[in-house]
DNA sequence: GTGGTCTAGACCACC
DNA sequence: GTGGTCTAGACCACA
C-alpha cells in the first residue's frame, strides 16, 4: 500500500479497511489487525492508524473491545457501503459530470473510457 | 458562488475562471476582474484571489500587465482545456471507476444518474 | 450480565459483587464463586476477575483463604455500603445536579423520571 | 479550569465548550478561541484541543473555516443540548437510580440533598 | 495568523 | 499483549 499525496493518510487507510469489508475479505465479528500491527506493516505511526480506527468506530464500521482489539462491527457492510456511496454520489459524481460538460466529453466517450480504463489505473 | 469544504478555495476560484474561459464567456485578451474586485464579490480575502491568479498565470491561462490588470492569455482556451482534461482523465476518472466496482454500480446505472443528475448537484 | 463500554469490566464485576452483598444474597462467611468459575460464567478473562477480587479484598469486602477460595468478609456489608455511598455522594451526585442545572431539568422532572425510570434502564 | 483525573482531558474541554454554548455565553456564529489560544490558556497541548474541536465539529456543535478559525455552528444549542441530555438520561441517571435503590436512599432524601447540595460541590 | 496531519515517544488502564 | 490519552515538535496548506 502506497500513499498518494492528496488525501490524508489516515483516510486512505480508512478507505483500505472499507474496501476489505466491501470485498468481504473482512467479515462481521472478525478481529482486524491491531493498531500497532497495522502501523508497522504500513510503515506508519501508530497514532495515524489509531486515528483511522477512531474514525471508523465513530462510523459504526468497526468496534473496540477493551484490551483485546478492534473487530468488524455488526452492520459494517451496510455502513461502509452507505458511507462510500454517499461520498460517491454527492461528492465525486457531480464533479465528474460538471467536468464532462465543460470539457465536451460525451457520455458515449465515457463509455469507451470505462471499457478500456485499465490504461489509466496506476495503483 | 458557494465554497464546498473539500477543495481549497483558491482552486475553486481557479475552476470558476477556467469555466468562464471554456464557456467562452471570457475571451482571449479580455480584461478579467481585478483581484480586489473579485475578492469583494466573492467575499474572500484578496490574498486568496491573488493565489488563484498566480496559479493561473503559471499555467499560462491568464497574464498580468503591470498596473493595468489581468487578461485572458493568448492560449488560454487550449491551456485550460488541457489542464482540466488531464486532471479529469488521470485523477478523477480512475477513482470513479474504482468506486463503481467497489459499490457495485454498473455503467448502466451511471448512465441513468447522468441523465437525471440535477438531483445531486444541489449539495 | 452485559458490559457497558464506559466503566472498566473488573469494576463492573465488583459492582455486581457489592450488589449481591447489599441485597443480602451473599452473606457474611459465604463462599463466593471461584475466580475461574465466575470468569467462565461471565465469559471474561480470569485475570479480570482476579483483579476484581484483589480490589474487593483491599476494600475488606471479601477475603481469601489459601487453597479454599474467597469468602464474604466480616464487615462486608458496612464496607460495601460505605464504599458505594461515598462514591455516590461525592462523585455521582454533584455531577448530576450540575447537569440538571445546565440542561434545565427541574427536580420535579427528575421526580417523574424516577418513577417511570424503567424506560431508561434498558440500554 | 482544572482537570479531574477520571475523564479524558479533551472531553472535559468539550464539556466546557458545550457549557459556554448552553449558558449562551458563546452564541451562534461567534468565533471561538483558536486551537493554540485555548491550548495556551488551559496549559494543554494544542493537539488535545484539536481533538476536542474535531469531536465537537463532528457533533455539529462547532464548525471550521479554513485558515480562519472555529465558529459556533448554526444548530449548536440544540445539538449540545441533545448531546448532553442523552448522556444524562441514558448514562448518568440510570446509574444514579440504581445506586439509590441499592443504598436505600429514598427520593425524599435526594430532595434534601438537592437543596443543600452546595456542600458537595468541589469545583 | 489559522487549521490539519504526521511522527516520535511516553504513560496509563485494562485483558 | 491490547487500546487510549497526552506531550512535544515538525511541517504543510491556506487566508
Describe the fold and architecture.
4 copies of one chain form a homotetramer. With 123 residues, chain A is mainly alpha-helical. Chain A folds into 2 domains: 9-76, Winged helix-like DNA-binding domain superfamily/Winged helix DNA-binding domain (Arc Repressor Mutant, subunit A, Orthogonal Bundle), CATH 1.10.10; 77-120. Chain A is built from 5 helices and 2 strands, in the order H-H-H-E-E-H-H. In chain A, strand 1 and strand 2 (69-72) form a beta hairpin. Chain A binds chain B through residues 19, 22-23, 81, 84-85, 87-100, 102-103, 105, 107, 111, 113-114, 117, 120-122, and chain B through 6, 18-19, 22-23, 81, 84-85, 87-90, 92-100, 102-103, 105, 107, 111, 113-114, 117, 120-121, 123.
